[in-house]
Design goal:
Layout (H helix, E strand, L loop, with lengths): L1 H4 L25 E6 L8 H14 E9 L5
Parallel strand pairs: 1-2
């Protein structure tokens, strides 16, 4: 995975975490930006909502969330 290969090139202050959405080792309202590499639409609608809510809960008030959506 290319993302793993650039971890040593990340700027100071950037936290790299590889985790499942149901086991996020992050405090609530702690992260300024999150990028989810899993295609959200590969899950049932109920699970999609839950996963997005869990990710958004970790974001600061002005944080950004990017979730991939596969076009069918």
């Amino acid at each position: 995975m290319r993302f793993k290969s650039v971890v040593n090139d990340l700027k100071e202050g950037i936290l790299y975490v590889l985790a499942d959405s149901d086991i996020l080792p992050l405090k609530d309202h702690f992260v300024g930006a999150l990028l989810s590499f899993g295609y959200i639409n590969s899950y049932e609608k109920k699970t999609q909502k839950w996963a997005c809510d869990e990710l958004k809960r970790r974001l600061t008030d002005n944080g950004a969330l990017v979730v991939l959506y596969e076009r069918e």
